[in-house]
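Summary of Year 1 activities. Much of the first year was spent building the evaluation harness for sequence design. The harness presents a backbone, in tokenized form, and records the residue chosen at every position. We chose the following record to illustrate the format because it has been used consistently in internal testing since the harness was completed.
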């Protein structure tokens, strides 16, 4: 993906009036949890924005126009304080960045390349952005696309996910050459000191998907609890009536894929998004008590399909609230780009969610910059 070509560190503070389109849940007699949108801001120009709440404000990880990874500081009103730490210089590959917090510090992934080939690196950073530990250059496997990583940090492990592609060298523009090939998530299991412990190739069988053995590891998310490891990802399961070309073929929908703690597939739950839109890049997933809050990118049929590199891949940002049994309670639309906007590369993409006590900050980027939207869940 390409970071929007926009000036570095041009600050803005503007409201961006989100559109809401709520589901009408069944009346059970009990209060139904719902979403309330609070303040929203456009805070910086860049891409891959990741909010990191502090007691006195916020840090924001982002990729700049120069393809550098920075951490910027803001006060509680999202006014910049001048703090600017460079996490990584411009690298030899795409500028993709993932940030996750753990007790050991900030976990930061970046794409790498050396004489052995392309790969990925996971690092832990202290509050001054000094490298504490590194996995080193993890060489991309022949059946892997080391891009758009997902990082999950648990009590004793770091789980670094990229895309698994069976017979990967023959894929073109993110599309499998044959429907029977497997597609899923390649997870590197690392210690918190970032020693590589194991590599897992996660596949799934999704009955209504076409093909049923393929889901997108690009733009996925992970959760883990005391009984399961969860992957949230897109699979083509809406049908060719809505999208029949490019990456959107079959109309991708978001699924919750359940694995046991040894990362063996159990079952697929969902789909969680409508069949008449192409839903993908569900890179924001958090638990809210017994509920799930999920952000993702979507396109409507009138917007046209995502055709693959180098064409624009943005859309609009959706936010859904679901029960722990994957009953969707509400959908919201947080951006309102037109079909013409998307054709011109002005769409929204790369969302994330971070919790700050009872408030959840959803972030995403478009040509205007990085947007942050505060959300509360009512009626839990």
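For this record, the design step produced the sequence shown next.
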């Amino acid at each position: 993906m390409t970071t929007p070509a926009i000036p570095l560190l041009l600050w803005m503070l503007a409201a961006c009036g989100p559109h809401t389109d709520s589901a009408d849940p069944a009346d059970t007699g009990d209060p139904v949890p719902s979403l309330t949108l609070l303040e929203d801001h456009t805070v910086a120009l860049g891409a891959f924005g990741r909010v990191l709440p502090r007691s006195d404000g916020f840090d924001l990880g982002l990729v700049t126009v120069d393809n550098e990874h920075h951490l910027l500081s803001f006060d509680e009103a999202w006014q910049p304080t001048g703090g600017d730490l460079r996490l990584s210089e411009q690298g030899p590959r795409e500028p993709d960045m993932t940030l996750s917090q753990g007790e050991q510090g900030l976990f930061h992934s970046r794409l790498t390349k050396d004489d052995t080939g392309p790969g990925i690196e996971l690092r832990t950073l202290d509050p001054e952005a000094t490298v504490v530990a590194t996995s080193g250059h993890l060489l991309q496997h022949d059946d892997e696309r080391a891009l758009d990583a997902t990082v999950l940090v648990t009590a004793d492990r770091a789980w670094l996910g990229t895309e698994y592609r069976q017979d990967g060298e023959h894929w073109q523009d993110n599309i499998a050459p044959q429907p029977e090939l497997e597609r899923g998530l390649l997870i590197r299991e690392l210690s918190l000191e970032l020693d590589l412990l194991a590599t897992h190739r996660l596949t799934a069988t999704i009955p209504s998907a076409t093909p049923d053995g393929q889901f997108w590891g690009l733009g996925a998310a992970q959760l883990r609890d005391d009984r399961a490891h969860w992957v949230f990802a897109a699979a083509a399961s809406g049908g060719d009536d809505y999208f029949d070309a490019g990456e959107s073929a079959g109309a991708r929908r978001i699924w919750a894929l359940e694995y046991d703690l040894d990362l063996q597939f159990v079952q697929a739950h969902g789909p969680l998004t409508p069949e008449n839109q192409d839903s993908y890049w569900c890179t924001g997933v958090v638990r809210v008590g017994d509920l799930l809050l999920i952000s993702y990118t979507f396109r409507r049929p009138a917007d046209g399909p995502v055709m693959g590199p180098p064409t624009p891949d943005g859309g609009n940002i959706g936010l859904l609230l679901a029960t722990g049994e994957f009953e969707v309670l509400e959908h919201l639309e947080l951006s309102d780009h037109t079909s013409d906007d998307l054709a011109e590369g002005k769409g929204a993409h790369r969302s994330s969610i971070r919790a700050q006590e009872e408030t959840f900050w959803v972030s995403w980027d478009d040509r205007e910059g990085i947007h942050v939207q505060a959300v509360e869940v009512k009626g839990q």
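DSSP finds one helix and 26 strands in the chain. Quantitative recovery figures across the full test set are reported in Table 2.
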